[in-house]
Design brief:
The chain has 246 residues and is mostly helical. The chain contains ten helices and no strands. The protein starts with a helix and ends with a helix.
């Protein structure tokens, strides 16, 4: 397995299990319907754990373009690998969203609420305020990326990174990152649904737009730039502070 395929598979598993728990909680006639925020945030944390376990030894398990950008900006990851990592991540996110739809296909038919259907693919704010929503995504991603810098081992590298430059979430073992994502969700997720990852939102949003989901309504493209731009800004801010402090 190459770093490219590892990022595809790891991100696909992340989205399958992360968006899968949302579908289980919000779609009608599922066994987990009404499970609530604790169930969602816990499963998202464990979804990160699974993605990191699979891809960590090969790619460093970035699974997130904001992480990739932040590490590259801080000089901890090769810039020439950034495009292929980001491409793999968006493809993996779309693949994972496709399998969520396939898995819960019957339950989409039983759910009249278009907003609930959209929630199984992408994020939406609890209160729409572009400035506040953008700040939420910036701060959430800042916490994610800044903490990752202090988790990582600078000697870690994936097979395709020569000389060894990859510093990713897999370098520290999966559990600390799972706890990090869990606390971000519990503490900072209530405003926007804590995308904190551009492809986690954009890839599934694209699939929501193209898949034949009955009564799905709008894909929310007027909001879609916030969970993309916010995480990138937060990652760069985290990398900048790390450079100043190190």
């Amino acid at each position: 397995m190459t770093a490219f395929t590892a990022e595809i598979i790891g991100t696909a598993m992340l989205i399958l299990l992360g968006n899968g728990v949302v579908a289980n909680v919000v779609l009608n006639k599922t066994k987990g319907n009404g499970g609530g925020w604790i169930v969602i945030t816990t499963a998202w944390a464990l979804a990160v754990y699974i993605g990191v376990v699979i891809s960590g030894p090969i790619s460093g398990a970035h699974l997130n373009p904001a992480v990739t950008l932040g590490l590259a900006y801080a000089g901890k990851f090769s810039w020439h690998l950034v495009p292929q990592y980001m491409l793999a991540q968006i493809l993996g996110a779309m693949l994972g969203a496709f399998f969520v739809w396939l898995f819960y296909k019957d339950h989409y038919k039983e759910t009249p609420d278009a907003g609930a259907k959209q929630a199984t693919f992408c994020t939406a704010p609890a209160i729409r305020n572009n400035v506040s929503n953008l700040i939420s995504e910036i701060i959430g991603t800042f916490v994610l990326v800044f903490t990752i810098f202090y988790f990582t081992d600078p000697s870690f590298g994936g097979k395709d990174a020569t000389p060894v430059t990859t510093i990713g979430m897999g370098s520290i073992g999966a559990l600390p990152v799972a706890f990090l994502v869990w606390v971000i969700g519990l503490s900072l997720g209530g405003t926007t649904g804590y995308a904190i990852n551009p492809v986690r939102d954009l890839g599934p949003r694209i699939m929501h737009a193209i898949l034949p989901i009955p009564g799905k309504g709008s894909s929310g493209w007027s909001y879609a730039w916030i969970p993309v731009i916010g995480p990138f800004v937060g990652a760069l801010a985290a990398a900048g502070l790390y450079i100043i402090l190190k």
